[in-house]
Amino acid sequence: MPRERLLGRMDLDTREWFDGVLTDAARKVVRESPEVSCWIVCDGDVDPEWIESLNSVLDDNHLLTLPNGERISFGPNVNFLFETHDLKFASPATVSRMGMIFLSDEDLDVRRLVQRWLSTLPAERQTSMASWMDDLFYRALEHVLHCEKIVDTTLVGTVMNGLSQVRDATSKEEFVCGIIRGLGGNLSLQQRTVLAREIFSWAKEKPADSSSPLDCYAQGGSFIAFNRVDSGDIRGVDVSDLGDKAVVPTVSVQRTEAMMASWINNMEPFILVGPEGCGKSMTIKHAFRQRRNIGIAMLHCNAQTTADDVIRKIAQSC
Question: What is the extent of the structural domain holding 65?
Answer without folding.
Answer: 3-102
